[in-house]
Amino acid sequence: MLMAVIENGKWQDKEGNFKHPDMVRVDKQIEDELVEGLVGGALVLQGQMREFKIQAFAECYAFVDLLRKEYDMERITSKVGAVTLKSFNGTMEVQIQVAKLITFDQKLTLAKEKIDEYLTHKTENLDAEIQTLITRAFDVKNGKVDAKQIIGLKSYNITHPKWKEAMAMIDEATEIAGTKSYIRFKQRAGLKLDGPMETIVLDLAALPVEENEIQTVKDELEKSKGVTDGKK
Questions:
Q1: Residue 9 has what pLDDT?
Q2: Which residues, in sequence order, are bridge partners of residue 199?
Q3: What is the CA radius of gyration of the chain?
């Protein structure tokens, strides 16, 4: 087992100091082994998912190239766009979607100032909820604004000159920094022809897990540990 960073048999603590194993509490040793084992497993899973993702993209794009050959079309060397492939009975589906990566230049700050001018002028007649949605669109998270929310401002049917000026500034501030491709896998519930199409969740954090499933595995672990302790 890897355990904590060890030098000459001593364990490294959070401050970089090395301690004799006898100075490390047993529960901390067990915790260290548990965390390193789980993180190690997560890294293995991450590598497997990355390899699968690369393979899935490659196979989908290779299929599109095969179709081009069938119709005597020249192979396009640039990235393939959106792709939707379905199983013969339609119960399984693979989708590749291409999203634009949108960034904004300094004119976005000017657009925000112009919108503030509009809000100051119209506060007494403007719905409070709409005003909140407008101001939230400019919230910065992880150093960036949400491009969808900024672009979404253009959907409001507001004809005031200051608002129109702000929307024009947003148009001028918008830049396409590139594209990002997403691949998703779907299947119909129960593989039934009329079942609803459901996305196969591959995001570990979003993967649904039932409490009773966790408890069952936990009970098995405790039972296994009991047998092991008994042998000792």
A1: 86
A2: 186
A3: 28
What is 164-225 written as a DSSP string? HHHHHHHHHHEEEEEEEEEEEEEEEGGG-TTSPEEE----TTT----HHHHHHHHHHHHHHH
- Report d(CA 184, CA 171) in Å as an integer: 31
Closest CA to 189 of 180, 199, 197: 197
% of the chain exceeding 90 in pLDDT: 58
Residues 87-107 have a mean pLDDT of 94
3-state secondary structure of 11: strand
Question: pTM of whole model > 0.85?
Answer: no
Give all strands (DSSP E) within the chain, no chain letters. 6-7, 10-12, 18-19, 83-86, 92-104, 140-141, 144-145, 174-188, 197-199
Task: Write the single-letter amino acid at 210.
Answer: E
Confidence of residue 1 (pLDDT cuts 50, 70, 90): very low
Two structure tokens written together for 11: 């364990």
Q: Which long-range contacts (CB under 8 A, 24 or more apart) does 163-172 make?
A: 163/114, 163/115, 163/118, 165/114, 166/111, 166/112, 166/114, 166/115, 166/118, 167/111, 169/107, 169/108, 169/110, 169/111, 169/114, 170/104, 170/107, 170/108, 170/111, 172/107
Report the pLDDT value the prediction gives residue 103, as an integer from 0 to 100: 93
The dihedrals phi and psi of 6, each to the nearest 5 degrees, come to -120, 135
